[in-house]
Write a structure and sequence with these properties.
Number of helices: 14
Shape: globular
Order of helices and strands: HHHHHHHHHHHHHEEH
Strand content: under 5%
Largest sheet: 2 strands, antiparallel
Structural class: mainly alpha
Radius of gyration: 20 Å
Helix content: 55-70%
Number of domains: 1
Length: 331
């Protein structure tokens, strides 16, 4: 976790605000190298968000910036930001929302989306097993490492974890639907996708798939369809600011239980990220794209070169997270 959000381990949930990881302000200054590191983290989040089934929130969780991200977004709807803005005190307004942090992360996300959308689309079409294997290793390792953020587990926390896992398991198994391309639905899609995107385990891209808007938005990005992207983006802004308030409140009041639910969401999402799938049913959308509607996970039928490579990538993904966790541990 970054310096802004380091807090002593908690024994149990408590409504005492003094024990939460929320800082009084965002006055801590980082070096240029640290901001470059934040941009790299944002790039990883953007790569994850492009892939349906993988959550940018999971990457933020793995990379140790999740709570700061939520609190920074939440600050955009709080009084200090608006007071400074109405007084035309731009430096104070930017500091109130931790703007340097947000800009560094958002720059990384934007770079990933604008530069890798076409490439990842090609990889998903031609080598899906390999990319799913790498992300499976990432997410599985994150479950192992993030559980240590709760010092003392009890029955209630295990129940919260199980609830999160069940919710994610059934959400990622839902069937995509045909939906309109009206402006109001694009706005709604942006709202729902961004809420999922900020949650570890539930992919914003996959929500767009369920809403029948993934191919539409990806094409809008590749074709620079500014109008459609602006409508989806407006919905995303409204959704993320609103949802961040809820998440921040949960972190304040029920920190350990919230972490447990988020771990459960990541665990349940493994159903979607499992590399080997058999498509049982599919549909052709209005753009002529074939969308799988029902898929069944299975073991690889034979130990081929691709299977060995996929296992190697899964191990590599697992090792990356374990290494990052070791490097970020207090000395």
């Amino acid at each position: 976790m970054t310096a802004d959000f380091q807090a002593p381990p908690r024994q149990a949930d408590s409504p005492d605000r003094s024990e939460t990881p929320v800082p009084a302000n965002f006055s801590t200054r980082r070096t240029a190298r640290e901001y470059l590191g934040l941009t790299a983290r944002g790039f990883a989040m953007g790569c994850a968000d492009i892939v349906p089934g993988v959550s940018g929130g999971t990457m933020a969780f793995i990379l140790g910036i999740y709570e700061e991200l939520v609190m920074s977004i939440r600050a955009g709807a709080r009084r200090p930001f608006w007071q400074a803005l109405l007084r035309l005190n731009l430096p104070a307004a930017l500091e109130a929302v931790n703007a340097r942090f947000l800009l560094a992360v958002l720059a990384g996300i934007a770079i990933a989306v604008l530069t890798l959308a076409s490439w990842l689309e090609w990889v998903l079409e031609h080598h899906p097993v390999l990319i799913w294997s790498f992300f499976f290793g990432l997410v599985f390792a994150s479950i192992v490492t993030v559980r240590k953020r709760i010092q003392t587990w009890n029955a209630a926390l295990f129940a919260a974890l199980a609830a999160g896992a069940v919710v994610a398991y059934f959400v990622v198994g839902a069937v995509p639907v045909q939906t309109p391309e009206a402006s109001w639905f694009l706005f709604l899609s942006g709202m729902l996708a961004i809420c999922a995107m900020i949650l570890p385990g539930i992919s914003g891209s996959f929500i767009l798939v369920l809403l029948g808007k993934y191919q539409f938005v990806l094409a809008a990005v590749n074709q620079r369809d500014i109008v459609s992207l602006a409508i989806v983006g407006a919905g995303a802004v409204v959704g993320i600011v609103t949802f961040a308030q809820i998440l921040a409140w949960l972190f304040k009041r029920y920190h350990d239980a919230t972490i447990a639910v988020l771990i459960g969401l990541m665990a349940g999402s493994l159903r979607k990220i499992w590399p080997w799938k058999e498509t049982v049913a599919s549909i052709i959308d209005r753009h002529g794209e074939i969308l799988p509607t029902v898929q069944r996970n299975h073991l690889p039928p034979a130990l081929t070169a691709e299977v060995y490579l996929a296992l190697g990538l899964a191990v590599a993904g697992f090792a990356v997270v374990i290494l990052l966790d070791r490097l970020s541990a207090p000395k």
